[in-house]
Amino acid sequence: MSADLTFKIEPPSSWPAVGLRELWEYRELLYFLTWRDIKVRYKQTALGAIWAVIQPLFMMVVFSLFFGKLAGMDSGGVPYPVFSFCALLPWQLFAHSLTQASNSLVGNQNLITKVYFPRLVVPISAVLGGLVDFAIALVILFAMLFFYGIVPGWQIVALPAIVLLAVMTALAVGLWLSALNVQYRDVRYTINFLVQVWLFATPVAYSSSIVPEKWRVFYALNPMVGVVDGFRWALLGKPESPGVPILVSVIVVCLLLAGGLYYFRRLEQQFADIV
Amino acid sequence: MSNFAIRCEGLSKQYRIGSSQQLYKTLRDAITDAAAAPLRRIRSIAQNGNLQTPVKDGYIWALQDVSFEITPGEVVGIIGRNGAGKSTILKILSRITKPTHGHAEVHGRVGSLLEVGTGFHPELTGRENIFLNGAILGMRKSEIDRKFDKIVAFAEVEKFIDTPVKRYSSGMYMRLAFAVAAHLETEILLVDEVLAVGDAQFQRKCFERMREIGNQGRTILFVSHNMSAIRSICKQALIIERGTVLGQGQIDETVDQYLSQINATQSLGEAVETNTFTVTSVQVTSVAGPVIKTFDPVQVKVQFVPKAEIKDPGLYVSILTMESRRLTGLDLKDFITTSSLPPGKATELGFTIESLPLLPGAYQLEIHLKDMAQNLVEIVPQFFEFAVAETEVYGGRKLDRWFGHIGLRAQPLNNSSRNGTKK
Question: Which pTM was predicted?
Fold first, then answer.
């Protein structure tokens, strides 16, 4: 290591830099923390990583029964199980990542009070940890598509971008909530409730087409609308033109992320004192 | 290349304490304070930028205007009483927390060992934890790969390296944790009392390792209450007292200065309050001379004023190590009964100890004041430090820490009786 590595220690500033370069230098720690979360998640469980699949599958069964069969929800010509599972996947990715990220700083307080590293590593690694479960569930989804004889069109190339948007949404909200959680533990109790309400504000069990035309733009202010519509579009080709919700979603996420970074970095300077 | 490794200028750190500002809040508070909270934070941030911040209730200055310089390659011990601000200095220098005022400059990669085994996960194996903990301490994966075998050998856990650490004995766990930390290769190392882990044999090994690291020309700041450890590892010392630097200099004279100071300032600066008593002074003095030496006759005097009538006053005094391990205790009721005290009467109770069997080092007193008539026991919420001066105890030998705390009056078995048993 170079000996001229110098840094200055100064009182908290109200306009902290984002510190992306430093974050890059700590990429190995990011990797190890993510790896730890994944490794530990299913330790001492009998079913192991199957849990990653059980939850969305079960939800799909429940949704298909109540919304698909009993309520006769319109799924735009797609078999309802595929229709709902296709939305449950990005939703679970988002919900899981958001919950993990929000509790990440408090859960790692032993690290925060004893070692220095860019604190952003903690919520980011929590969010990344959700991707493994997602990848496993994605295999099941492709099996289902094959079973129902659905062949995705060219739009499937957009899938990684949509997944990235889901991850960014979770991170943007997660940054706010994790920093807030350091000071107010109420966040921990609010988060489950928030995720439940959010689920119904997102077209997972139903199609976004049931929302009246004039409300669509407001509806899309929920960034998960763009994510779920985009995900369905990429795999099922429905809805046909999710451009507007996706665009609104990208803008909202960028704003949330910028604000979240600022808020996080400013509060970060006191994490060790108040956690 | 600069001519210092660490330079602090006017470092101050303010902490919130007490219940007036809770560290984190409950739901009820969050609701009632919902509107006020952001305002209050904006206000407090605005005040932090202002040097004239008055010290309000519920705030404490852990550090005040601390300035010092450390030249590269220096091994410096930071000494001071509990709560003097030693750990806060390390926390600021390792960038865990920010100073309220002042600034510091650090040249070189910093490794901080404020605790061993930070981030160890019980479900992961020893091998996995080495990598995780190494990454947390700031090592590169390639670096850990390279040192892996050395770390495992140092910790003596070869056989269990693929066992989850939750199955480890606490000794194995500690050894592994220290082993990872001991192989950090940063230019600057900040160490906080981590030698106080494991069994005596492993402590010795850690201690040797520290000395070895110190001889490699790296800059080390080492916080400890263990004066003999500090003396043998460090070349310089820094005394911290109530958040300020009291002195910096060559190791032996600085430690001597510190130890003599402890004894000089035993009587309290200000009274300590419990519910029923106001403790005005606690003193430990040698009857034989100005400093306390091993086996000296000493007096322990506790002066206090009761706030209410005490029918059957009692006093319990206990001697603790600086790591707060209880060594022994004395209860006045085992000796005498004391007549009742009216409220407001200045009182002195205490003991004469014929011969204090403590080896050189710093110790602390815990004091309980009682009224046996009402089954009232109040623990004085502060420990009182005193030091036994560094002297020759057994036949002109200066003792190191491997002798523990207790001095024994001993004689060798005489030759004739040894011959007698052999026969």
Answer: 0.76
